[in-house]
Amino acid sequence: MPKIIIIDDNQDLSDTLRKQLSRNLRNLGSDLDVITRLPFKARDQYYAFLDSEDACALILDQRLTDIPLPGGDAVGYQGNDLGIELRKKLKDIPIFVITAYPTDAPGLKESFGDFENIIGRNEFNDNSEQY
User: Fold this and answer.
1) What DSSP assignment string belongs to 29-87?
2) Residue 80 and residue 63 in contact, taking contact as beta carbons nearer than 8 Å
3) In the chain, which end has fewer C-beta atoms inside a 10 angstrom radius, N or C?
4) How far is residue 18's CA from residue 40's CA, in Å, rounded to a whole number?
5) CA–CA distance from 115 to each of 40, 57, 104, 111 (Å)?
6) What is the pLDDT of residues 35-79, one digit of tens each?
7) Nearest one of 64, 109, 114 to 94, comparing CA atoms
8) For the ranges 15-19, 27-31, 55-59, 77-81, which has the lowest average pLDDT?
9) Are strands 3-7 and 33-37 parallel, antiparallel or unpaired?
10) Whole-prediction pTM value?
11) Looking at residue 3, what is its pLDDT?
């Protein structure tokens, strides 16, 4: 079954986002699954994972470097870096970036031109209650 995959270094925030999105999708009559994943240390590990999970859309946290992974350091790349890398091979999968930064900040949308949209974390939380 196709899945929307959330990549985030903060498990609590990604679980909350997963629950909200899953509820909204169910309310809209969708049977898509939503799963979360901590970042991989190496970006090339994503391709096999996304293929095995039948990813149909990705939501990437912009600040993937904030929290160390279990048993190690934080990853050395941000969400937009990962998205740019994945876009090279995954041309048809929608990629969204979620951030705590204001999405109307000058130049932000232009710097994320390879993505379908930038979603403010607060914006998503505010809008989720309407579904």
Assistant:
1) T---EEEEEPPPSSGGGHHHHHHHTTEEEEEEES-TTSSPPTTSPPPS--HHHHHHHHH
2) no
3) N
4) 19
5) 20, 11, 15, 9
6) 999 999 999 999 999 999 999 999 998 889 889 988 889 999 988
7) 114
8) 77-81
9) parallel
10) 0.82
11) 96
